[in-house]
Amino acid sequence: MKYECGDQRKFFCPLCPYKATQKTTLAYHMVIEENGACKYQCLSCNKVYKHKFILNRHQRYECGDRRPFRCFLCPYSAKQKKSLKIHLLTKHKDVTLPVEL
Asked: Were both Cys, which of 3, 27, 78, 96 would link to 69 (CB 3.0–4.6 Å)?
């Protein structure tokens, strides 16, 4: 109740607008580089990213063994959409690509 009840975010990142309800959450958020830049760290695999939106993309599509983008012609799967596009263009040259890719 002291830290998490409501939205009382008492722990502030000194380098960016991030606020946390717990001190440990703030510690996971921050990895300080030599030049004082704020970095964002994945809690699952400890990879570090310069921008929060890249960390979010990593957690959605890449962290662990997730391969959500699957080729409709063979068993190939990829972590990123652009990798699937490259696969289709190089391995299945004679096939017309779907519009949504």
From this structure: 78
